[in-house]
Amino acid sequence: MASSKPYLQDNHGHISIATEFEERVWMHHQHSDDGSGQYAAAYHLIGKSNLGRLVSALNKLHQFIPALNLRYHFDEDNGLVKSAKDTADQTINIEAVESIEEAIAHLQHKQSNPIQLDSQPPIQFIIYICNEKEVVLGIVSHQILSGQLSWKEVFDVLSALYNHGLATELSEKQNKTNKAGYTPLAKLSDLSESAISWIKRNDSKISWIQTGLSEGSSSSLNAAVSRKFATSIEINALEKYADKNSNRTNLLSVVAALFSRYMLEVNKLESLNVFVPIDAERDMFEMNGALIETDLTRLTLTPSSSKIEDEIDKIKEHIGSAQSQSSEYYDYSDAATLVTWLVDPSKHLSFENIASRKLSIAPLEPRFELALGVGVDEQGALLLELFVGPSVSAHIGAYILETFVKYIGGEVIEQANVLELEAPTPQETEFEESANSLRVEDIILEEFRDALASESMTKHDDFFDLGGHSLIATRVIGRLLTKHGIEVQINDLFSYSTAEQLAQHAIVQQTESTDSTDELANTTSVEQLILAEFREALSVETMSLDDDFFDCGGHSLIATRVIGRLLKNHGIEIQINDLFSYSTARSLSEHANCHDKAVEPTCASIEAAELSKAPLSLTQTSLWYAKLQFDEMGLKSLFNLPFALRFLDEVDEIIFGQAFRDVLLRHSGLRSQFYKGEESPFQQVVPVGDVDNYKWYWTSEESEFPTRDGLLKSEASHVFDLENELPLRIRFVRDEESGQQFLSLLFHHIVLDEWSVNLMMDELTHAYKQRMSGAAPKWKELPNPFNEFARKQRESGTNQVNLNYWKNILEGVPWAKPIFPEDHYLAGMPDETGVASGGWVEIKLEQDVIEGLYALAKSVNASLFNVVYASITSALHFLGAPKNLVVGTPASGRLDAEYFDTIGYFTSIVAHLVKFGEVGTVAELIEQVKNSINESMPHTDIPLGLVQQELDLEVPEGGGFMFEVFIQLHAKNKFNGALELPNGDRLDFQQVDPDKSESGLGLQFEVLEEVVNDEQVLRVMMSYMSKNYSPAQVKLLSDTTSALFAEFAKSAKGDQLLEDIKGRVIDSETV
């Protein structure tokens, strides 16, 4: 019967009941968990594409077509419901690849990752830049949208948005009328298993030798993947059965009759089940974008001596009968073939000055083992495309299509001669089944343990007694089928709920030669390697496979380091978003890709690199010219990095100096000098033998300052002579009043970044312990020198793809202004004390607020920094910051894993755009922030100064950066810790807050996530430029930000509306 459930009426987030078809697709999606209900399509855009316009058009699409932004949720009272969000929170990914083939490979990999239908849109767009010139538009779509979305509608609107920046509202929503059709959700049984065994592939590896092809071609030909074979013939070849002006149904009936008879005759079959589409004219509603695979009708054809014309009439009559029936869903799983109409939505892509061509992609998860597509090209030729599944021999598809074309032409095709193999004896079968049962039992138990987080579970324990329920059962069944080829019925799991019992009722599907036990062993190996890197990065030796990375102190900077070390040391590739979503070693291992390890550089090559002068890296160059600009303004110490430590225990200053010298000799970047050069600046490493000729270290006995304040103030204002001294100064002072030792560590920013600070402190702690035992420190490996990184980066040139990434994001964004207008009621008198004079305040956070922010981060799969960042920007927006707020933040800039252990200045300043108009809730804002930061990471080797040069910006006098607001994370920095002695004793130290009296940034928020006395501490420091903000405005900023932290902390799931929060926090009279 037709569904009586209402369809979504508008795009305002109203909830409606899903259709029966959507329920079936959703249930299949929950069971499979493998992306089998998703499709991939790719379109080659030939011509000069404007990426900014394309991204903008894609971002606006959902405003005109709400189905693009649906979400599906299971409601206890109403079952499956759906709603269209007001805003789109998906990001249009831009990927740089070497070729169109690599783009298709990446797209199909993305297709295989299941879309989370409750939180992600069911259609996703990816723009590929191939070899820095070709553009491909990739689309991953979900079957659940079938019938709700027309590609003509989507591409017409997209073209209008691209060409004109706007599109008219659709006067009439095109909805597909569901016929009495069958739509397969899963793969049907194989013809090769029941009727045509000779087409089935086997494990024999056949070498393919052909002139012009490399030896490596054989591996791709032997791979168990689906394939597509295509040809075209003159439509006159069918003139005996249909004229060239025949409609689609007539042409489809002719080809279906011919192909069915060909298959019956060649294979001597008694019957053949054939599916054809009920309505070949409704092709634009096919989500796969390749061939009609929904609303099908089945015929069972048998060999016949009647005329082929009678068979054609029979098929046409059957289709006509099916069109008049009422909608009815039914299931079918027997072997069958499909003869259908081909789909090409590219004809509706009409971008200005761009031609569009659909790229051929073989389906990743074909429903039919054999499917024949029919179409007519622009020249009127008949198109034939044969799709074969991965179970079919790679060499058969071309043969079938070639002989079928001959059959159309009237040639008689002989039956294939196939030698049948002798069946195994009952004894052999019994032995094999016994061995398989033991293996299946172990695999089921492993999946039970993983799903229930119960490592001690045995094969005799009951799944439901240990916390299992229907949702977990659904996931286990899906994983058993997709990962191990073990089919279990849901009713069997309820009836036989131990691993031992269930194994007796499981069906093991035939797979490739990969043994599941080997797969488990490999997964375990990856798990252990990930866990080892987690433990080392977090210094938590007791961490287990199921402990959460972020619960144990992880954050985005440490995550980046772990990802780099896994790739460099073990060849294990992890995506940053996967680490946020799957944050235990066990769960993350399932999303890892393994590669060959990189070749380690030799000590000789490193030493040689240190001896020659090198150019400045891109980020160093940007800082160098900014330094020259600020020098002219009298701000010669603006790029100093002053740090100070208070030692709570007595430290041996002589040994400490030796230990720091060990680190200095190990990292040549810390002993580099910088020169103006005739054409461009360069750096030169001071040789190891010359280091002691420079004064860079002072004990407290050498200090002329009686108090720590005098020393710290003097050091912070020191002006480095980068050509003639080392870019660091390490000085002890003993405070006369307290007797405590204080340490001043001063660096020029050109040689040190945030990441390097923790590297330095780790190595300093190690060296101090070794020196206290009377020995020089022993290191695991030698880091690559920074100047070699700078040389390699300059030789490779500016990464134009990464530069374009930032240009596309920031194009059209104006230079930022102070948060408050000049006539704001709290504005003070203009500051005359100095161009960069400023101050700082600490924004206090109560412990319950800190705990609430951590809980919120965990519930929305984000980092604490993402949450704090979203809180701060919300406060600023509520106080008057624009809807599109540009926020500066430092990015690690370490894209090359070879330099993850190198101390240097890799950090680049980047600008992200917070779009408040596209989010409604706390969770949506956090998700946007997370995606903006994470997805930009591969592009952070481009300094913002270089981006600003490329943008058409009105730069104010004095220059600077295009943002007013800067948010920075100091996560678990090692300036709060301890030196360890050989006997295990600790010498504790704490960081002393600097006194900031100068600022080159309008508003800077520093988020300090620290561990002090083994307790988690979160602090937020806000520094400001006095000429932009009065003391009263600073207090308003501080109080509002504090209030937003408290509000976000109370939003446990992030479902609070931002507008509601604004109403509670902001008094309209004060803004």
TrEMBL record:
Keywords: Phosphopantetheine, Phosphoprotein
Molecular function terms from GO: catalytic activity; phosphopantetheine binding
Required cofactor(s): pantetheine 4'-phosphate
Domain Carrier: 435-510, 521-596
Record GO cellular component, one term: cytoplasm
Highest rank taxon of the organism: Bacteria
Entry-linked InterPro entries: ACP-like_sf, CAT-like_dom_sf, Condensation_dom, PKS_PP-bd, PP-bd_ACP, Ppantetheine_attach_site
Pfam family membership, one: PP-binding
GO biological process: amino acid activation for nonribosomal peptide biosynthetic process; secondary metabolite biosynthetic process
PANTHER family membership: FATTY ACID SYNTHASE (PTHR45527:SF1), NONRIBOSOMAL PEPTIDE SYNTHETASE (PTHR45527)
Name of the protein in its database record: Non-ribosomal peptide synthetase module
